């Protein structure tokens, strides 16, 4: 499993259970998991990744961040908190 930020949105990779050679999960399980990941990835496009308030994509730094207006002023051009 991997949870990270990529291109200013949530990136999440997981499998229903440990992977075995030849596969051991059904296509229905993978479809459900893919739908959940897609839902939360889409939601993360509008949530400040610092405080959880409503946010927007900020492309003013070398790294793209989704921030609310309040947190925008607290994050430097390098993407670090001031």
Automatic annotation (TrEMBL):
Top-level taxon of the source organism: Bacteria
Protein name: Uncharacterized protein
Native organism: Streptomyces liliiviolaceus
Lineage: Bacteria, Bacillati, Actinomycetota, Actinomycetes, Kitasatosporales
